[in-house]
Structures are given as C-alpha cells and as structure tokens.
C-alpha cells in the first residue's frame, strides 16, 4: 500500500464515522461534530493529494485546504448558533423531538 | 510503504472519532473530537504542510472545539441523557456509512490515481503562501473574509436573545 492510499483510507474511515454520527445520533451537537469530522476528512484528502500527487503549481493544494478550513469554521459558528436558537425555542437539542414540520 | 508514525496517528484519529461518536456525555464527545483535530494537525505536519497544520491547530483546536464546549454548556448538554443516544432508525445510518466506506475503499483500491509512482516531496514555504494569497488568490481571500464577516453577524443575530419570556 502506498502512503497516499493509506492516507486516503484513513480519510475514508473518518468520513464514514462522521456520516454515521450525523445520521444516527439524536443530539444536534453530535450531528454537527459528525459534519466537522466529514469536512476534516475531505481536508486530509486535499493535503494527501497535494503531497503525493502531480503538482504543476505547488501552492494551489495548500490554498484549497486553507480556504476549506476557513469556510468550515464559518459553518461551525452558524450551525452552533442555530442549535442554541433551536434550544431556546424547544428546550431540547434532540433532533427527533423537533418535529413540527413533520407531515 | 506505510510507516510507524502514520499508524500511530491513524490509531489516535480513529479512536478519537469513534469515542466522539459513541460517548454518552457531550463534554466527553467534544474532548474526543479535539483529540481528532490534534491528530489531524499532526498528520498535516507529517505530510509537510506545516502552515495548514498550525492553522488547523489554531482554528479547530483553538476555536471550533471551544465553540462546541460553549454550545454544550449553553444547551445544558453536559447532563447525561437518560434516554437512548441514537435515533430509532440508527441501523440504516450505520448501513449507509458502511456502504459509503465500501465504495470509497473499492475506489481507492482500483484507481491508479491513488497509487502514484514515488516522487520527491514538495516543500512550500510560508513566504510562497503569503505571496500567493496577496497576488493570485487575493479575490478568494477577500470573498472568504466577506463570508466570515457575514457568518459572524448571522450567528450573532440567530443566537441573539429576542427578549421574550424564558
């Protein structure tokens, strides 16, 4: 197994753990943690491909990862603000108790 | 070849991720996810991306983990839930996760892009990154700044107390 394949497999496992958390946990904060894990797995892929893949312009891969980190931080801030607003309204952060829009 | 430091880091990251997903107490979940962020920063350093590694350390371990702790405390999530942790249809989620992993693992095994010939390691200095940020990628930098400002104001407005009775 090449080092790149090792890092890609690690990122794939991390992504799937995050996906399973986002799909199965009831608490909204753990769902957000799962989304963060998925974003981090994608970032690990960017850096692994930058280091081991073909690179006509060496700085581009770094830039991609840096902007992805910045946008993920903005996403975390807005997501947690939404969790707090939902908690104020419903007095719970459990996703299956917030079902007013359910048909 | 896969080396020892990589295996140690991978074990740290995966154990942290599983703990973050499985823990009952939300504060423990956040601590475990901070361990994952530190492990990923170390992986970036090992891959030769020093700037991204330290940015990860500052932004994720320094900011996002603290933000998660605040959210847990503001929503009284520190109390251990007495009811089930997982949704009623949790086995579907696990099945979907396993299926996605099987697909990704198959793709990594098959794709020639995942098995490149060994090449000389790339090195990018902070000076190069700064020059690129100020010349080639300056538009993306400005747009990211605008987005972060909008996200900050939006987060404050969403989370702001509307003054109603509590």
What is the overall silhouette of chain A? elongated
By CATH, the architecture of chain A is named Orthogonal Bundle
Q: Could you report the average pLDDT of chain B, rounded to the nearest whole number?
A: 87
Question: What is the CATH superfamily of the largest domain in chain B?
Answer: NADH-ubiquinone/plastoquinone oxidoreductase chain 6, subunit NuoJ
Supply the CATH class of chain A: Mainly Alpha
CATH architecture of the largest domain in chain B: Up-down Bundle
User: Roughly how many Å apart are the termini of chain A?
Assistant: 49 Å
Radius of gyration of chain B, taken over Cα atoms and rounded to an integer in Å: 21 Å
Would you write up a description of this structure?
- The complex is a heterodimer of chains A (103) and B (166).
- Chain A has helices at 3-24, 28-52, 59-90.
- With 103 residues, chain A is mainly α.
- Chain A has a single domain, classed as Helix Hairpins, CATH 1.10.287.
- The longest helix of chain A is centred in the last third of the chain and has 32 residues, at 59-90.
- The mean pLDDT of chain A is 88.
- Chain B is an all-alpha fold and 166 residues long.
- Chain B has helices at 4-22, 26-46, 50-74, 90-110, 126-134, 138-159.
- The longest helix of chain B is centred in the middle third of the chain and has 25 residues, at 50-74.
- Classes of the chains: A mainly alpha (103), B mainly alpha (166).
- At the A-B interface, α1, α2 and α3 of A face α1, α2, α3, α4 and α5 of B.
Nutshell version of this structure?
By secondary structure, chain A is mostly helical. In chain A, 77% of the residues lie in helices and 0% in strands.
